[in-house]
Amino acid sequence: MALEFRNVTKTFGALGQKVVTAIEGVDFKVNKGEFVSVVGPSGCGKSTILSMTAGLYQPSSGEVLVSGEKVTKPNPHVGFMLQKDLLLPWRTIIKNVEFGLESRGVGKAERRDRAMAELERCHLAGFENQYPYQLSGGMRQRAALARTLAIDPDIILLDEPFSALDAQTKLLIQNSFAETIQEAGITTLLITHDLSEAVIMSDRVLVLSERPGTVIREMPIDLPDRAHPLKRRQMSEIHQHAAEIFALLKLDQRAT
Amino acid sequence: MTSSRNTTLVGFLILGLLLLVWEFLPPALGVPKFIIPTVSDMVLELGRMYRREHVIANTLSTAWFTLLGFLIGSTLGATIGYLLGFSRFWEKVLSPYILALQIAPKVAFAPLFIIWFGYNSIPKMLVAVLIVFFPVLVNVLAAMKTVDRDMVNLARAYSMSRWQIFIKVEFPSTLPNLMAGLRIATTLAVIGVVVGEMVGGNTGLGFLITYGGGQANAAMVFNSIVLLTLIGILLYTVLAALEERLLHYIPKKDH
């Protein structure tokens, strides 16, 4: 089991303040090599799930396990990536990819080799000595993926990594991410508000309710070509799945 | 290329025009030379200052203490700014005092420093240190508070130590603000030293200004001001060049 949430509840707010329950009784599993998406209305605690998996803070009750170990602090088994690429502007692309390896006692030469290999896998060979501002938004997100993969994590967490990209770049980057992730065989948790993105990229979609967030549906996506979202996009089943999630989230009622 | 050559050309034309106006307009209007000396008077006076007033030694002395005050003041300001940036608690406790000291006119401390340390070079350096200290501290502290939390979290998720996070994320993030603070500090350092020299002492361009003022020698005062400006420009230029090198990764806007 790559990731497991066991009846996790998280509340925020110190003594005397109004207590906000972000998520309540969240319970799910992600198998090794599986690609799972989490969708839900805004403010449903999607990012809370991510931060707890990364070990940035602890659940109020319940437990989070990564590769069977309880998460108590930031750990080397988890890599995460946000909407912002978080590339350090003063470093070249390759130095950015090496960033995560610098606290792990990896030698300089090996760091460089691993970073170079990841850049090649993410189709960024030839850009290693550029600075982030010299790259397009899509390339910067690929560089961020290379940095995330370089630490060789058991699981990667993607928090809306495509939402800042323009529509066409988004399609291409989704495709290139899906290929790279398939090739690396890495377990992935994607957090997104884009329903069709969740469906075309995943093996399974978890639908969260409004705050306090809890899993109201686990929807397996039994379709081929997970590594090729552009192909999946053509399939008619995609629209049925997306419509079903749309109904679950009661989005049509919110519109009024 | 042509446009940059044009700016230089027009710049020199304006300078030439200004000097001509300065040379010929006041005499034409009947303004006496002890009120506004002409350019040629100032050049003659500069020659006299070279022979009689040790103008080179005085300029070097002012330049040296400006540099020293700048280095000490900005090092202290940056260090304390970063330390306060580490601790929300101490920042909150100390910020009213910092604010009060920042508002207090630093040059007014000059007589106090002379009472404490005597008529030597320590007071003027201290005024420079004090005046340089705050803009650097405030810039650094503000920058530490606005470091991207997500970047810090990323470093934390990579299990970096507090020190590694500072060196690899926070310090480089604050570099643009630090450099901006230092740039302000260069010009302030000159002011600090001059005020120190004007209040007490018998060396430096500030002393020559007071001395020249006492003798109603306007040309000497003007010349000293020009030399002070040159010191400021020199320091500022060195810093701007350093900044250009350090912050090369920030894309330049083309105007």
TrEMBL record, chain A:
GO MF entries: ATP binding; ATP hydrolysis activity
UniProt KW keywords: ATP-binding, Nucleotide-binding, Transport
SUPFAM superfamilies the UniProt entry points to: P-loop containing nucleoside triphosphate hydrolases
ABC transporter domain location: 3-235
Matches recorded under Pfam families: ABC_tran
Assigned protein family: Belongs to the ABC transporter superfamily.
Protein name: ABC transporter ATP-binding protein
Species of provenance: Pararhodobacter oceanensis
Automatic annotation (TrEMBL), chain B:
Pfam families: BPD_transp_1
GO cellular component, one term: plasma membrane
Keyword Nuclease included in the entry's annotation: no
Membrane topology: Multi-pass membrane protein
Domain ABC transmembrane type-1: 59-243
Keywords for this protein: Cell membrane, Membrane, Transmembrane, Transmembrane helix, Transport
GO biological process: transmembrane transport
Main location as per UniProt: membrane
InterPro entries, per database record: MetI-like (IPR000515), MetI-like_sf (IPR035906)
Matches recorded under SUPFAM superfamilies: MetI-like (SSF161098)
Transmembrane region(s): 63-85, 97-119, 125-144, 180-200, 220-242
Compartments where found: Cell membrane
Superkingdom assignment: Bacteria
Stated family: Belongs to the binding-protein-dependent transport system permease family.
Protein known as: ABC transporter permease
Organism for this UniProt entry: Pararhodobacter oceanensis
